[in-house]
């Protein structure tokens, strides 16, 4: 039985200003909402149901692209928006991907500006920099955005990041924060977690890139830090120490399947086409080259530092396989 969309009604004069979380039914959205609702009024927007929702969290089951989402902003005082409602499924139709991510982000930012929201936090990704043999050891926030050179599906993420950047310049009265996270692992269903959950992990023979992972709870910590008054700007968000991929795989106790470089692309593309793997072929570039970021600005300005070390992060990932 589907969860009904709560009817949007006017609020009392003394209603508390809320934090609106788009994409609240995703793994990170749920974790953030369950953290915030202890001290904040939380309103969620997501077309998916929110299982095990705390009773004091409001959930509006609406597609983020629909104009009636604005009713939530019109009838509720909103002090902050955390935008997580980004579609990442590489098997989804390209048009659906683009309209959901770009139109959804555009309208969310418009509503924030139109209804006097003072803080906007957008979760982006360090993958927008793109893995490359020419990358410096650690990329700062002003590094060129080259992620779409080999992975066209990441163009939406780049455009979302650019929309948020442009919004911050057009609306200096709104504290806009963009968080570019390294590979998030845990219960999230993304390429990095799916790849490391494989029983036998494919690698490219002769390559052992340095990798940065971050625990999903640390990402939530970073979003909470970003909601503090006075914080604005772009921040790279990294986890514990940068580590060779081979060490990560060995720590997980997994076996590898080495592919020779000339055959790796064609083999993975064949497996992807016939749905024999959940690993998108363009992600192979992350198995060859590094895309690691400098998080010094986040540590200094956001006062963010990861709570979970590499061993704890990988143990948490391993627990999601059970």
Q: What is the chain-wise order of helices and strands?
A: EHEEHEHEHEEHEEEHEEHEHHHH
Give the amount of beta strand, in percent: 15-25%
Helix content: 25-40%
Given helix and strand content, the structural type is alpha/beta
Name the overall outline.
Answer: globular
As a whole number of angstroms, the C-alpha radius of gyration is 20 Å
Number of strands: 13
Number of helices: 11
Name the strands of the widest sheet in spatial order. Answer: 3-2-1-4-5-6-11
Write up what this structure looks like.
This protein has 322 residues and is α/β, with parallel strands linked by helices. The protein has helices at residues 27-36, 70-75, 94-114, 155-170, 191-196, 216-226, 245-251, 261-273, 284-288, 296-302, 310-319, and strands spanning 18-22, 41-45, 58-60, 78-83, 119-125, 175-181, 183-185, 200-204, 210-211, 213-215, 233-237, 243-244, 255-259. Strand 1, helix 1 (27-36) and strand 2 (41-45) form a beta-alpha-beta unit. Helix 1 crosses helix 6 and helix 3 (94-114) runs parallel beside helix 4. The longest helix has 21 residues, at 94-114. The mean pLDDT is 91.
């Amino acid at each position: 039985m589907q969860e009904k969309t709560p009817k949007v009604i006017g609020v009392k004069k003394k209603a508390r200003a809320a934090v609106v979380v788009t994409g609240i039914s995703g793994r990170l959205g749920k974790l953030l909402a369950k953290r915030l609702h202890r001290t904040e009024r939380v309103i969620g927007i997501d077309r998916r149901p929110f299982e095990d929702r705390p009773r004091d969290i409001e959930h509006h089951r609406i597609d983020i692209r629909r104009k009636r989402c604005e009713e939530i902003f019109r009838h509720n005082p909103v002090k902050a928006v955390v935008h997580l409602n980004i579609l990442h499924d590489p098997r989804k139709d390209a048009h659906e991907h683009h309209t959901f991510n770009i139109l959804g982000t555009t309208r969310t930012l418009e509503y924030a500006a139109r209804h006097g929201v003072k803080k906007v936090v957008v979760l982006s990704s360090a993958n927008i920099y793109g893995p490359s043999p020419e990358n410096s050891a650690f990329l700062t926030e002003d590094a060129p955005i080259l992620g779409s050179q080999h992975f066209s599906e990441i163009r939406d993420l780049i455009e979302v990041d650019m929309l948020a950047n442009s919004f911050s310049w057009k609306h200096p009265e709104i504290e806009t924060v963009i968080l570019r996270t390294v590979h998030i692992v845990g219960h999230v269903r993304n390429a990095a977690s799916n790849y490391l959950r494989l029983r036998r992990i494919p690698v490219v023979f002769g390559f052992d890139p340095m990798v940065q992972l971050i625990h999903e709870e640390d990402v939530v910590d970073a979003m909470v830090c970003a909601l503090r008054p006075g914080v604005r700007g772009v921040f790279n968000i990294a986890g514990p120490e940068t580590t060779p991929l081979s060490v990560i795989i060995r720590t997980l106790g997994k076996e590898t399947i080495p592919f020779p470089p000339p055959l790796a692309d064609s083999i993975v593309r064949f497996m992807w086409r016939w749905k024999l793997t959940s690993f998108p072929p363009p992600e192979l570039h992350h198995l060859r080259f590094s895309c690691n970021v400098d998080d010094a600005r986040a540590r200094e300005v956001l006062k963010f530092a990861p709570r979970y070390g590499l061993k704890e992060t990988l143990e948490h990932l391993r627990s999601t396989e059970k």
